[in-house]
Design brief:
heterotrimer; A alpha/beta; B mainly alpha; C mainly alpha; A: alpha/beta; six-stranded mixed sheet; 39% helix; globular; C: mainly alpha; ABC transporter involved in vitamin B12 uptake, BtuC; two-stranded antiparallel ribbon; 15 helices; 71% helix
Chain lengths: 262, 298, 352
Amino acid sequence: MSRILEINQLSKHFGGLKALQEITFHIEEGEIIGLIGPNGAGKTTLFNCVAGVDKPTSGQILFHQKDKTVSVGGKKPEIVTGLGIARTFQNIRLFDNLTVLDNVKIGRHCRTKSTFFGAVLHTRAQQEEEKAILDSAQNFLAFVGLSGRDDDVASSLAYGDQRRLEIARALATEPRLLMLDEPAAGMNARESRDLMNLILSIQRRGVTVLLIEHDMKVVMGVCQRVVVINHGLWLAEGQPHEVQNNPKVIEAYLGSGAAGAA
Amino acid sequence: MLLEQLINGLTLGGIYALIAVGYTMVYGVIQLINFAHGEVYMLGAFFALTFINLLGLPFYLAFLLSMVCCAVCGMLLDMVAYRPLRRSPRLAALITAIGMSIFLQNLAMIIWGSRPLPFAQEAVPAYFEAKAFTLAGVSLSWFQLFIFGVTIIMMTGLNLIIKKTSTGRAMRAVAQNKTMAALVGVNVNKVITITFALAGAMAAAAGIMVGVYYNSLYPTMGYIAGVKAFAAAVLGGIGSVPGAMLGGVVLGVAEALGAGYLSSLYRDGISYAVMIIVIVFIPAGFFGKLIRETKKSL
Amino acid sequence: MSQSQARFLKRGNLVKLGLLALTLILPLLPYVSEYLIHVVILILLYMILALGLNIVPGFNGLLDLGYVGFYGIGAYTSGLLTVHFGLSYWAIIPLAFMNGAIWGILLGAPTLRLTGDYFAIVTFGFSELVCLVLTNEIWLTRGPLGLPGIDPVSIDLSWLGGPRWELMGPEVGEVPYYYLVLAMVLVTVFVMNRIQNSRLGRAWFAIRDDELAAVSCGVNLLTYKVIAFAISAAFGAVGGSFFARWVTFLSPDMFKFWESFLILCMIVLGGMGNIWGVMLGAAVLVSLGEILREILPWLGLPAEVRFLAFGLIMVIVMRYRPAGLMPIPSVARQMEAARVKRKRVKTPGFKA
């Protein structure tokens, strides 16, 4: 397996606050890797740096494509998505007032190209592209299990369905690396199990997954490797059960002197 | 010549500052550009005109009375037009503000006619015209000193209120975070009303002084002065009171110098140009905080 | 009939078809005076302007307070090209479109990265500057004296050896202008409709709804906002070009802030973002203006009072129906949320 993403000495400071300090790890292509740590550890900040929402203070983020390697740090988010890195948000950011189908269609934006003139002049190319967008959007919806709800308004969906819609939209951008930010938050046991199956089927499609998650059942269930960060510092890394039993990790979550984690 | 323009500019600037502060305070507490503020300024001048010309009241009494009336006008504007829309999308409040501005302008036109009106000559203190002293070949009249004096007193007073009183503290709290201010017991509506009252009173003072200075009042005088004062508020950083004061002075001087040396035709255009250039290159203005774009609607 | 035919005939479309048929035959109906035709032409012109403005706040969620600037630029370009070069209106339409788009790009590119309120202020400043330039650059525009003698639109086939028709004249009145502007409205509606259902329109709606999410789907905010602003400006300019060749006289005070406000009210009143709502808003407000102009003298008030009435009406409408007459569902929902919140916050002791 080859590496798809390398994070080297990544630091992000917000004024005096050191959100990330020289974080270093890599992701192999095709794996599902978990990023865990207590609240405020810097996990979402790391996502934001990779996705281009925040500019790293120092360090490198290297994205390996088929024939070249691109340094992704500091690039604009729309460029990063175009390169093949997609992400979901901790607080679900759907286009609330648009339909389910439109949400996913917008995900196709970076892989399509019709313009004003194509739209107005209704060219053959534009018509074909619209048909392709419709078909692929519906495919992605079917893949996450949201078929038949095309014209429902996104904000009317149940919470779990909204999460799946957000994932469908992210998949529509045809990423090679998908970053999920606490996808299981607020889900019950059954929904979490469905989510785990979804993540595994995403992996089977050839997409690499980087997962921030607090729900340890999900992390144990799907991740092949886990990276732990705390207070912006790399703490531990390894297979899920190794990390689970690592005393430093236990201390980070439960405080010093705690033994026997969940 | 330069000194003369500078003095003109400072005089003008003081007036703009008085109006600009009103815009910036209201924006600070409810994030609304009070388009009707210029009309309160205009009404201040016309109230004074009515008190002096029609009721024969002495100048200083009319001045104070007009300030009180405009404070009330400001409060009414908030209570009747803006408060019901506190939770509505901002565009609705903005349209209401513009609508009130148009309403008041035309109301004034109906009541007082659209031809420029002067103050009754006898009523305005005669010594205003007289020269107070001469500075390097340029003479200042008592009235210019009066304008400087009033401006400085009001700015200082406002600063004291905002920094030292509990009301001022409440105003600053509401400007930072309305919900939290309410949760710690601040009566947010009362604070907003007081803000409008202060803004109205100062605008009235500005209006009367301008009316006496040019000795000509007309119903649309609020529009152009309002836009320039607003440009000053933006220049200083919208939401910042010291910024509005400084912005007013800077804009006044820029306008006087520009009109004197560049082009008097584009005297008004200088304000617009300054405003656009400042916003594009330094969006936060002198002292403002950059308004972060949140997921809020129009 | 086929399923798609059946869907097409649902009630909304029937109403629209009926209205279209009515407008097509309007000048031929009895009791239709020249004044009525004139007013309907005005309504149709404002529909074009309102549809153009709708792109920015309606589709993109940005506030544009300076639309009259583009309207004025388009009008004066059209007027000056006609007066100095005798250009045919059919050449002017695309020129006005492009000119408007260029100005939209020039103004939009440096300013659309600003947050909402600041952008609104800059557009306002821009339109005021345009008005100042129109007033002061007398060598170009004749300033306050106005620009008279603009030729009316004509269809000139004389270069092919054919006839030449002027679109205005004693026998036909303004009826040919009526059909011209009606055609322009239909083209505008067609364009707006096609944009709405395209990748471009979806990108705009995404920006309007959630900029961060839009960006994560690959939408470059600045590019798309500038495109929106440019197209909006282009339509404003085209409307202006028609205005110049219709009233054949221009003066700077026709292009003051009041027009920007008026058109903004049309789209808010009609239902921002909704093509048909916006057209309805244009019809309602232009008609209201004319009705007020007629009624007020009857009530013993001078006709200028209609501005006062107008301001008051907008305040009242914003108070009770801020979503407008035909809101798109998202705007209606926002209003509902606002109303519900207002009812809930009646806890004693806190007056927030």
